[in-house]
Here is the input.
Amino acid sequence: MVTAAPHLYPHQWSWDAAFVSVGLAHLSVARAIVEWDTIFGAQWATGMLPHIVFADEPDYFPGFGVWGTEIAAARPDGVESSGICQPPVHALCIEQLVAIGRAQGGEAAERADAFMADAVPRLARWHAWMSRARDREGIGLVEIHHGWESGMDNSPRFDPFYERIEVATPKALPRTDLKYADASERPSDREYQRYIHLIDQMIAVEFEDDRIPAVIDFRCGDVFMTASLAASAEALARMADETGDADLAATERARAEHARTAVLASVDPTTGLCRDYDYHAGHHTDVASIAGFSALICGGDDAVVARQRAILTGPQWMGHPDNRYPLPPSISLDDPACRPREYWRGPVWPIMNWLFAHCALQQGDTALASGLREAGLAQLADEEFGEYYEPRTGEPLGSHQQSWSAMAALDWLTADRWR
Here is the structure.
């Protein structure tokens, strides 16, 4: 497996690996497929793709022993993994891997086509699990039970969810992450106490999907996860068309429409941005973050998309006068909650630049796609491939040599679709 980063993240993260496979395909389709062998090899009997597959690297917290998934009946034997998921970008990444292989021709194309035929039913199980286990209310929003599932771990969008969590007995936490990144760039100890508290709640019910909602303190209808599902369901539908599975193609298009409808229903008419839903409180939340632009990921309403594009490229986000590059920070620099050096509380993330550019290109918005690509490559020209960047100075933060940041540069420079 390709680890997410050399030191800070010495294991395979699910959505990191999906993105990384796109970059690997430019170098070797066969090698990219090996990455998916690890991802799919860890798929639970329920269909879930766990967010971490652990390598033999003990210097990481929380490791497999902390997760306690050895008691999870759905976890495949012999595979050490976490017990939660991450954004379902997998199908849209596989679609790109296949396109890259076909463009190379010959053996690469043959391998890509054979891999697609094998991957389609695995992806179908993954999407079906997400709809069955994480949309119990039937409103279309994917429910998450931990900020880590969103991929945007400590974003201010989750503050209302974490603030209700009281940890009765704090634990000693071996913060191995602080060996490789400054504490000012990482979540706090208080946040980590809450993160581990949620894991313990899942352990108490043996990670059983039917039992978790009744005990978990964190129940968020995640609009970004939902938009990602819509985009990936469309990609899976196109691949199902190619493999001749008309029923699956129809199922995935219906899934995409259901998810898109939920994303668009979340839009605040005043701000124009998408909103998460707090299942415990029974209402949408009003924290503005990069996830608020989720309609740009899934499309579905030209007016909403046009308004969000105008806001994203405007002076509070990409066009902010203090930005080093015209790229979207995770939180607007004008927001009092913005901490421009701290993880998902302000920095610019190269992988978000790539994802928004990819979705813009898919929807025919070549101006936004090319703008994100050009500025994103300028940011990555430092060759540090930072996990995230200080929006005002362009300083790389968090882990350096981050695998998915390198993928963004490689794909932008290599794939014909960007030309």
The first strand starts at residue 12 and ends at 13. The chain has a mean pLDDT of 97. DSSP finds 16 helices and eight strands in the chain.
